[in-house]
Amino acid sequence: MKTFVPLVLIALLPAVFWLPAMAQTKHGYHRVAAAPRAPAMAETPLIEGVVKKVNKYSGRVTLFHGPLPNGTPAQTKAYVVKDEDWLDQMKVGERIRFATDPAPGSQTVLRFEPVQ
Questions:
Q1: What is the structure's pLDDT at 64?
Q2: pLDDT tens digits, residue range 49-97?
Q3: I need a surface site. Which of 18, 20, 34, 54 has the fewest CB within 10 A?
Q4: Residue 36 lies in a domain
Q5: CB count, 10 Å around CB of 46?
Q6: Cβ–Cβ contacts within 10 Å for residue 40, how many?
Q7: CATH code for the domain of 75
């Protein structure tokens, strides 16, 4: 037991000098990258899609669309709408043009208009 305590102290001794040195070092993983600037509403292109389902209870609309500018592939997907009053204006089978939040994987329709 008497030799165990000095061995532990000797093993922990480098940490006494190492920890303060690490605290003063600038690590790359501590930097937070600035968020990319989101395009203004007028800059966000409208994508054509077809309304497949309107769910007023959940505040979502299911749309079939082609590829989105943010990299989302063509698919049928449920989106949250920015204004739930829009759900009263959307009809199943209707073709619309819509814009989503430009962030990758976005699930919010920011604006829409019917295709004439």
A1: 95
A2: 999 999 999 999 999 998 877 777 899 999 999 999 999 999 999 999 9
A3: 34
A4: no
A5: 14
A6: 8
A7: 2.40.50.320
Range from 25-39, 75-89, 95-109 carrying the lowest mean pLDDT:
25-39
* Domain span holding position 95: 47-114
Report yes or no on 11 lying in a domain. Answer: no
Half-sphere exposure of 109 (CA within 13 A, CB side): 29
63 in Cβ contact with 99 (< 8 Å): no
Sequence-separated (6 or more) residues with CB below 8 Å from residue 33: none
**Spatial distance between the Cα atoms of 107 and 82, rounded to a whole number of angstroms:** 10
Whole-angstrom Cα distance, residue 93 to residue 53? 8
- Considering its fold, how many domains does the chain have in total? 1
User: In residues, how long is the chain?
Assistant: 116
| 37 phi and psi angles, rounded to 5 deg | -70, 130
Cα 10 to chain centroid distance, Å, stands at 48
- Alpha carbons 44 and 66: distance in angstroms, whole number: 15
